[in-house]
Amino acid sequence: MHSAAQIGDAIADIDTPALILDRSAFERNGAALMASVSGLPIAVRPHAKSHKCPEIARRQIAAGAVGICCQKASEAQAFVEAGIQNILISNEVVGEKKIARLMAMAQRADLAVCVDHIENAQALNAAAIAAGIRLGVLIELEVGAQRCGIAPGGPALALAQAIGQMPGLRFLGLQAYHGPAQHLRTLLERRLATDQAISLTRDTRDLLARHGIVCNHVTGAGTGSFMLEACSAVYTEIQPGSYIFMDADYSRNDWHDSGMPIFEQSLFILTSVMSLRDPDHAVVDAGLKASSVDSGLPLVADLADVRFHKASDEHGVLQRGPNAEKMWLGQKIRLIPGHCDPTVNLYDELIVVHEGHVEAIWPILARGALC
What we know:
The protein is of the alpha/beta class. The protein contains ten helices and 17 strands. It is globular and about 70 Å long.
């Protein structure tokens, strides 16, 4: 596999497009998260779907995380094979082949999974019995994301009671994650949405307790809201992922007076000017195949009054405003991706830079793990 850089290269010598990580900003983000919840009765389980990189997972665990989250069985497999031992698949795993893969991993690592339907629980139970294990499961609640999850209250209670009768499963608790709340722009909007999720989760936890079912774990939360869940006295664990990188979409949130750390941008797409039709119109070599645009086009990191105007497969068009410096052919420019998670999934490696040079190259081993 061709690598865009070698250790010791100057940033200007990195081939493009490339995904680069500012090691100092990355480390400050990790330290800020752990410091923000220090002293709270809350565990940190970062979501690895953001980085898909075992080296980052190892560093997060060394810094105090209890383990990681993954979103797919194949993603979890990449981390298990890299030696990561404590993994929650914060998603449903449905289908014979996926469940077989799950059971094989559960014999090698401390693995848990979410369920939201009795038929899925029954399939997991049968497979776990056949494999000679008891699989940990959490019931996923629908708390506002309008995605996966069983309704809080009575439906969740019925599912928990059924799981309690399944010898191949261990009921661990609840997952309650409100994904859209992470990207609501004002603190008030995020607080209202998260408070509603917390209330639904608390009521369900208490209902289960009244029926003799103990929820040892209540997990969820993301980069946009985690302090609200951490201080709720309901959640026992938080799952932020993007905080280590950040992106253009998160930069649009209002963080002032939120009580949360202000995380730095540490992840960038390094690109080169490959065509210069005129001083105000530059084309770079990073287009749709180099940056996810589901949350908008990238931002130009270092050049004032220069805008990423449009993208095609392999081209990005930059427009220079009246106050911008002139661009030149071959110029290296850092872009801030619109959405970090799917952008990372486009690359095989993270090029770690420090003080202007390449310090390390970390493989993105779970890249493309979609099944």
